[in-house]
Amino acid sequence: MGKKSAPRRFQDNEAMAHSRAIRISPQKLNLVAGLIRGKDASKALADLTFSPKRVAGDVKKVLESAIANAENNHQLDVDRLYVSEATVGRSFALKRFRPRARGRTGSITKPFSNLTVVVREREEAN
């Protein structure tokens, strides 16, 4: 028998891609995600290509995946796509210690982040 499939979380004119455990803090990743929110997909790809931020390459991969999902899985028009959501969340953090003076230790946290990108097809202008 099996269990019934869950209803689709997004509308019919949306596609999504996400990446887990990106090795950067959520605050820094959110700065790059803010660059592409609400922009056309082609313009967002161009901005990420020439961005000096290190994590821009990872964000670009996720955006390209969302665009490919829209085209191949949901038959959406690539030329009318725009980034409707780009959400960043905390993942786990590696905890490390560094020896300090007088027998003490300094704690170091190496945070990881999750990224979700949702692209939506623009409505036709009548």
Describe the protein's architecture and organization:
Helices cover 29% and strands 36% of the residues. By secondary structure, the protein is an alpha+beta fold. A hairpin with a 5-residue loop joins strand 2 and strand 3 (105-121). It is built from three helices and three strands, in the order βαααββ. The N and C termini lie far apart (46 Å). Strands 1-3-2 form a three-stranded antiparallel sheet. The chain has helices at 26-36, 41-49, 56-72, and strands at residues 14-22, 81-99, 105-121. The protein has one domain (14-121): Ribosomal protein L22/L17 (Ribosomal Protein L22, Chain A), CATH 3.90.470. The radius of gyration is 19 Å and the shape is flat. Helix 2 (41-49) runs antiparallel to helix 3 (56-72).
Brief digest:
The chain has 126 residues and is of the alpha+beta class.
How is the secondary structure organized here?
Layout: E1 14-22, H1 26-36, H2 41-49, H3 56-72, E2 81-99, E3 105-121
Antiparallel strand pairs: 1-3, 2-3
Primary descriptors:
alpha+beta, Ribosomal Protein L22, Chain A, three-stranded antiparallel β-sheet, 3 helices
Number of strands: 3
The low-confidence runs, each spanning 5 or more residues with pLDDT under 50, are none
Give me the Rg, rounded. Answer: 19 Å
Strand ordering within the main sheet? 1-3-2
Based on the coordinates given, report the CATH architecture: Alpha-Beta Complex
The end-to-end distance, rounded to whole angstroms, is: 46 Å
Structural class: alpha+beta
- Helix and strand run: EHHHEE
Total domain units: 1
Quote the CATH topology.
Ribosomal Protein L22, Chain A
Full CATH superfamily name: Ribosomal protein L22/L17
